[in-house]
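Components:
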Amino acid sequence: DTAVSQTPKYLVTQMGNDKSIKCEQNLGHDTMYWYKQDSKKFLKIMFSYNNKELIINETVPNRFSPKSPDKAHLNLHINSLELGDSAVYFCASSLDRGNQPQHFGDGTRLSIL
Amino acid sequence: GESVGLHLPTLSVQEGDNSIINCAYSNSASDYFIWYKQESGKGPQFIIDIRSNMDKRQGQRVTVLLNKTVKHLSLQIAATQPGDSAVYFCAESNFGNEKLTFGTGTRLTIIP
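Structure:
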């Protein structure tokens, strides 16, 4: 059973479109995250939610909007996609907030044409 | 600002030898450190973590060493195997920050 699952795995779309990426974890964790990994493999936190409450909101364009309907799900909606949004987006979860291991999904590769 | 860096971007090691991957950090307030392994097309996979009240921690074939004096972290992999080929990331955080800051990664290649 996949612990942290993201859909879709690949997303190819045109500039200006709006798209969503879904994430679900079956680990019973309270905290979930979105990361962006660029072409040089650099991983950077975007958002974090704890029990559906936003706790980390990095300097991310407001075209990116996370939504957590319940603590097992954290979705990412992106409006007006731009070329620079091309990257791999990873969802992760941890048992609770604070210093502990985060468990990652296998990523969604977003390519903007 | 805080940063986490790696000394070497690539490392090639003979199969069966030990590998050592190094990481430097700059934030003296960092109190939690973690290593991840990322294989091609996959997400980062947790390997081992260590808190600042320790200087060494061992897992299965892996050891993490923490030197707070020089702000240095290393991951030792014993008897490396072809399956160890991947990109390895160190990351750090502190309790007040609540976020992991990742280093740039080291690509480990195992030579048969």
